[in-house]
Amino acid sequence: MNLKNNLCLKLFIIGLWLVVGSCVKDKEFEKPEVFCSDDNLATKSISQLKNLYDGQTVQIQEDWVIEGYVSSSDKAGNFFNILHFQDKSSDPTEGLQIELELRDSHLFFNVGQHIFIKLKGLYLGKSSGVFKIGGVFTSFGNRSVGRLPNSVVFKHVLLSCETNIGIEPTSFTISELKENLVNTLVSIDNVEFSQEDIGEPFALVKEETKRTLVDCADNELMLLNSGFSDFQSQTIPAELGTITGILSMDKGEYRLIIRSLADIEFNRERCEDLVDEFTNDAILISEIADPDNNVGARFIELYNSSTESFSLKGWSLVRYTNSNITVNLSSIKT
Predict the structure, then answer these.
(1) How far is CA 18 from CA 9, 11, 12, 27, 97, in A?
(2) Residue range 170-268, CATH number
């Protein structure tokens, strides 16, 4: 290296040192933006917000703020562009979900994180029994709740600065599930996967897949799994145990969505098989209504004359019409 180049290099290093040094010593440099609040900003509850819904998607005009605790996580890929939260970190009474264009939202909103949501300008709607807030999209003239654009997510969703103490799932049996706890974190004990699902993958590749959970009383609950999740190819376990997830609903039927395989603790022996009976002289047809002019008013009432409960699982009700000796196939009800 010649003298001229060596001198230029030294001058460059000295200049760089001066620039770096001046940046470090300057106490007036711009501070990073604070993304959390020490104040409780909430002015309304989730329950009060839901009361605005009148059967159609509505834009929120009120300058309201609600609070909640994050219950879902997209870290394992079973949730996508959606965030579930509930009104309390334990023993919640209401839950809600917000749809947003934000991948890897778990990097910003950890499970248990206390959040505030500024509602003005957002949309409130209900789909298949599930309340949701977010942006809006229109299809055939009908408005529905859609994803909140990424550019405004952090203008509406704010973090609390309080320490994250985690979140406690509410324990239920399948028969005890309640509609007001949709969108909250629940835990269900003494359940297993149906015999047909054992050994199958949690989901088909790139397809949302339903798997059936069953308790020892033969009550069923559908588990929804994403075909894009990290555990998509893992096989369904055979054991019985406890499962935790976000309670959802679809057309009046409860659904459960896990955050990861860590939400499943199946390590006990399966339920004893229930013996389905197909004869019982205590079951009687007590009433029949078959009006010709009102198909919707037709019904058959069954009466159990014994004092013990009786499972009708697997039974079918058939009709023989006009002295026929073969079953009217259109009449078969199971």
Answers:
(1) 14, 11, 10, 15, 51
(2) 2.40.50
Spatial distance between the Cα atoms of 301 and 38, rounded to a whole number of angstroms: 60
Q: What is the pLDDT of residues 53-74, one digit of tens each?
A: 999 999 999 999 999 999 999 9
> What sign does the dihedral 79-251-95-146 (CA atoms) show?
positive
Q: How many degrees, rounded to 5, is the angle at CA 77 between CA 76 and CA 82? A: 120
**Dihedral in degrees, nearest 10, Cα atoms 109, 111, 116, 122:** 70
Which of 158, 237, 248 minimizes the C-alpha distance to 199?
Answer: 237
Q: DSSP 3-state assignment of 295?
A: helix
Question: Closest Cα partner for 225 from 206, 236, 210?
Answer: 210
Helix (H) or strand (E) holding 32: none
pLDDT at position 27 is 42
Partners of 132 in the β-ladder = 97, 125
CA–CA separation, 216 and 213 (whole Å): 10
Question: Which pTM was predicted?
Answer: 0.76
Q: Return left, alpha or beta for 252; rule: phi > 0 is left, psi -120 to 50 is alpha, else beta.
A: left
**Domain extent listing, the chain:** 37-160, 170-268, 283-331
The answer to whether domain 37-160 has CATH 2.60.120 is no
37-160 against 170-268: fold identical: yes
Q: Which residues of the chain fall short of a pLDDT of 50? A: 3-5, 7-14, 16-32, 34
Distance CA 33, CA 51 (A): 35
Nearest to 253 by CA among 174, 173, 187: 174
Q: Which residues contact 244 (CB under 8 A, 6 or more apart)?
A: 169, 185, 186, 187, 188, 258, 263, 264
DSSP state of 120: T
Determine the length of the chain.
334
